[in-house]
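Researcher: I'd like a candidate sequence for this fold, 655 residues long. If you have to choose between options at a position, lean toward the conservative one.
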């Protein structure tokens, strides 16, 4: 989308808000579902709401440079609070709402938050639990008043009351607010977002107005986003992707941000909104496809046959039709009929009827899953990015969409591959610095602005597309010198709906082994159809028939890995199915569901020793954290299986 002819381009998000209120004042900016009812705010109403909150924060004594923590689920008022903080010259710092108090205390202390704006009583309680360790917190503001009446309000207020007080006392503070807002430039901090902390403490990534606005402008133009688009804001507000989609691109393009009621109603709300621009990590698309296939297994014979027939047509010609490639008239007719009978109703059920541009990223998505959605006519693409890049490093252009690459450099982004194979980039979106961490900043970003991604990959000759192999730090060598790339194998395993998570070991070893987490929903449905009774996750995970099924998947992956000469040494020789799901609350995953390899290797050292020690089973006890914070232990005797591998001689002969 081109910049509207309004003179000088705004230099801040509050500046874009003022522009949007002037240009598209009566168009919807936000929708929110609460108590089953959708409410809507125009850009003019949004500007008024943001200004009222900013005035309220001024009356509370907010200073330039203060850090304002935002904690809660996706709500328009929390997005407004971030913009209001910026208007005051402060820095918004969104936190993950599902983080426990102990995780929050590090970020709140590290950034020196003076103000906390919390969504509800649950988030307030977490802050109060650790407040004695956070003397810098000046005031707590909360959005939802339910349950808050009897709290000590000497340094706590409802957001609505703060905004009302700001509006009532505007004469005292509005001149100062206007001065601060007018001071904002491209080089002022727009937001600070914390990394997931895969290998250590999270780092505060400082992103400027230049980073966010230039990235939003370039990428919105890439996909022709405009004020007529709709996005569903359901991903964590602390994640950089949500900030770019729901703030950066939304304020640049002027499209509508829709907030679902809660996680339980998200799929229903998705169907009601029917977004035209949509992002989801692979696990969302995988979960939806698993649900569809389970329903089809339970459907009547005629319905199942019709689904299989038309999906075969869709897989054959759907992607070509989507990309505008030549397809015969007869096939177009068959596809049209399939759209009337199968694809259209299915897309409507999923909430994808209006999607014009869809993205997935974060992990590799299975080719079969990716192709399934594109076969339906959904323009699903892949991107590659990270917090330090303001998300976008590469994107897939329309007509050049493939499941095995992450696309070409996004507009304004340069990429180079180091001799070690690590991917480097630089762009206008490149972060300013890590907060209070000059050493990490210097080791990540050099004097010329090149940023080390930590990922290993290569650029294809001819197409210019980037292919990512694995995390550079995880790429190693096996005992015989063969290349070891665990994520490459893990992603292949997770392509199977029955496998939720996988962790592969093998660096410096003579063979690769793996931990497997089953997907309880998918395997549970399979068990019911096969008359397998079970009483718990642990019992189902240890069932011999489940092991047989997972072994089949592992051996299929081995055959696929063996076909890659560079990575054929990564075939899995032995595996076990874990007795519990890997969990962020237990420290095994980050809040964005990235595997913490070092912690898992340390926590389950006895299981790794058993895999490499030739044992057939191993007794283990594992500490777990329950939802209420209590600690407990799970005891189990785990089976260890050998998996068939493709012999080196056979593979070389085949080549």
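Model: Candidate sequence:
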């Amino acid at each position: 989308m081109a910049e509207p002819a309004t003179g000088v381009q705004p230099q801040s998000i509050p500046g874009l808000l003022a522009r949007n209120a002037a240009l598209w004042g009566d168009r919807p900016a936000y929708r929110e579902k609460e108590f089953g009812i959708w409410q809507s705010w125009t850009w003019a109403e949004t500007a008024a709401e943001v200004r009222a909150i900013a005035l309220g924060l001024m009356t509370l004594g907010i200073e330039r440079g203060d850090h304002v923590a935002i904690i809660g689920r996706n709500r328009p008022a929390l997005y407004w609070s971030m913009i209001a903080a910026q208007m005051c010259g402060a820095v918004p710092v969104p936190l993950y709402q599902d983080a426990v108090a102990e995780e929050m205390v590090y970020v709140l202390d590290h950034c020196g938050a003076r103000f906390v704006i919390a969504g509800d009583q649950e988030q307030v309680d977490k802050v109060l639990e650790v407040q004695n360790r956070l003397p810098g917190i000046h005031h707590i503001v909360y959005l939802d008043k339910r349950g808050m009446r009897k709290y000590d309000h000497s340094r706590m207020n409802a957001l609505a009351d703060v905004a009302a007080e700001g509006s009532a006392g505007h004469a005292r503070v509005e001149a100062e607010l206007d001065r601060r807002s007018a001071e904002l430039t491209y080089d002022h901090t727009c937001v600070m977002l914390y990394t997931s902390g895969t290998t250590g403490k999270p780092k505060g990534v400082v992103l400027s107005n230049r980073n966010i606005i230039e990235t939003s402008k370039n990428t919105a133009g890439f996909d022709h986003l405009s004020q007529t688009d709709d996005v569903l804001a359901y991903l964590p507000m602390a994640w950089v992707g949500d900030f770019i989609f729901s703030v950066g691109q939304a304020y640049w393009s002027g499209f509508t941000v829709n907030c679902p009621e809660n996680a339980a109603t998200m799929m229903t709300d998705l169907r009601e909104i029917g977004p035209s621009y949509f992002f989801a990590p692979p696990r969302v698309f995988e979960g939806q496809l698993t649900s569809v296939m389970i329903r089809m297994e339970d459907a009547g014979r005629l319905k199942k046959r019709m689904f299989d027939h038309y999906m075969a047509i869709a897989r054959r010609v759907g992607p070509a039709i989507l990309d505008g490639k030549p397809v015969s008239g007869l096939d177009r007719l068959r596809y049209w009929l399939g759209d009337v009978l199968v694809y259209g109703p299915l897309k409507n059920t999923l909430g994808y009827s209006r999607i014009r541009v869809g993205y997935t990223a974060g992990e590799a998505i299975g080719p079969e899953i990716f192709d399934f959605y594109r076969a339906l006519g959904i323009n699903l693409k892949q991107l590659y990015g990270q917090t330090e890049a303001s998300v976008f490093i590469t994107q897939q252009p329309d007509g050049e969409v493939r499941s095995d690459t992450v696309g070409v450099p996004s507009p304004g982004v340069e990429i180079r591959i180091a001799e070690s194979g690590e991917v480097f980039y630089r762009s206008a979106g490149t972060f300013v610095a890590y907060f209070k961490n000059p050493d990490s900043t210097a080791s990540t970003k050099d004097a010329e602005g090149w940023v080390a991604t930590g990922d290993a990959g290569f650029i294809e000759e001819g197409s210019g597309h980037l292919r990512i192999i694995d995390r550079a730090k995880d790429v190693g060598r096996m005992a015989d010198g063969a290349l070891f790339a665990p994520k490459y194998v893990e992603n292949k395993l997770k392509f199977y709906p029955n496998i939720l998570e996988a962790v592969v070991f093998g660096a410096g070893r003579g063979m690769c082994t793996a931990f497997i987490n089953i997907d309880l929903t998918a395997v549970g449905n399979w068990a019911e159809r096969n008359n397998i009774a079970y009483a718990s996750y642990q019992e189902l995970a240890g069932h011999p028939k489940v092991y047989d099924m997972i072994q089949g998947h592992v051996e299929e992956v081995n055959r696929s890995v063996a076909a890659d000469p560079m990575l054929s040494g990564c075939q899995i020789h032995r595996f076990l199915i874990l007795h519990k799901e890997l969990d962020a609350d237990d420290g095994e995953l980050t809040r964005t569901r990235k595997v913490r390899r070092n912690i898992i290797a340390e926590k389950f050292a006895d299981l790794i020793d058993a895999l490499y020690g030739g044992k057939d089973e191993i007794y283990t006890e594992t500490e777990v954290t329950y939802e209420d914070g209590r600690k407990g232990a799970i005891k189990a005797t785990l089976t260890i299986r050998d998996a068939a591998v493709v012999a080196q001689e056979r593979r070389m002969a085949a080549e």
